[in-house]
Specification:
The chain has helices spanning 2-12, 14-43, 60-67, 69-103, 106-116, 124-135, 140-148, 162-172, 174-186, 190-198, 203-231, 235-241, 248-257, 262-294; strands at 47-49, 52-54. It is an all-alpha fold and 295 residues long. The protein has a single domain, classed as MetI-like fold, CATH 1.10.3720. It has a two-stranded antiparallel sheet. Helix 4 crosses helix 9 (174-186), helix 9 packs antiparallel against helix 11 (203-231) and helix 13 runs antiparallel to helix 14. The radius of gyration is 25 Å and the shape is globular.
Length: 295
Amino acid sequence: MRLAQKIGRMRRTDAASGILLVSPTALYAILLLAAPLATIFAFSFWTQDYLTIDRSWTLANYRTAISEPIYGQLMLRSLWISGAVTASTVVLAFPIAYFVSFHVPPARKSLWIFLITIPFWTSYLIRVFLWKVILGYNGVLNSTLLGLGIIDAPLTFILYNANAVVITLAHAFAPFAILPIFVALEKIDRALLEASRDLGETRVTTFLRVTLPLAMPGVVAAVLIVFIPTIGDYVTPRLVGGPDGLMIANMIQTQFLQLNNAPMGATLAVLAMFIVTLVALIFVGLNRRFLRRQQ
């Protein structure tokens, strides 16, 4: 009886109620996130000979991944492409978010956000194929430039290389950058901007010393939202990247599906996740130092 009473009292506490509310979500996250990651991590220490997997733990895959130049080149290229996509996307997204937040009437802001999300209505593959048509040798861009007499021969550096991957991914992830920056700008108290102007600051210095620091949480969110998924994208590099635009995710796909070497694919995935996490932490640390200097 006493045990039953204690259990009954525990169920009535706020902590117990919180645990009961969180437990379904936690279980869902463990099953769909933690368990696959743990499996990939375990696979990286195994070896495979065609269909036979040797579960003896070894560091051979990591030694191979670190020593083989091709893996390092693909990882560096992936970081460069993802960094270029992130920088271009955020730089282009900030003016759009700023315009919608500060210059669009409140009654029309929902319409603008609705228009920004229209690209999500179409399939990701369709958008990639459309960019392939636009950037092609006889595509829309080359045909237009040739028709206007701006160029004498079709441009060859805009498709089947890293440039095409950057352009396509920047367009695909633009809404992911615009929305968090817009939310951060909406939270800025306009009275602070007026106070800055009243104290003698210009529009430029007000933006640099007030608006930009207050909008940095949205910028950081946009950077992470764009950078992390793009470094793991393998569809766009395969379709528009060509040999010079392939990324580490394409090698991971090849290891799993074509070379039938899941442990090596898992090893490359673990290393990629580690490097992305390290880069993200460095960026967040630098952002904190920037904000402290602005205070």
